[in-house]
Design brief:
Blueprint: H1 2-9, H2 17-32, H3 46-58, H4 64-67
Amino acid sequence: MRTLKEEEADGRAYRDIDDARNRIGEFIDAVYNKQRLHSAIDYQSPDEYEAGLIRLRRGAPAAISETENCY
């Protein structure tokens, strides 16, 4: 997770292991899973990808971003 190393952990001082766990966990929840686009899942955030899977399982129509790369 290069993003985690570059944007959260690299060169940062944490008070203790609990502080590190909390701040890294918050980074993953707030930034990595909600804002960062991932090439392995068609340049969606993990949260967007998961929401799309849930819609597909329920039989709901796909969102525009899920179909725009289809030919």
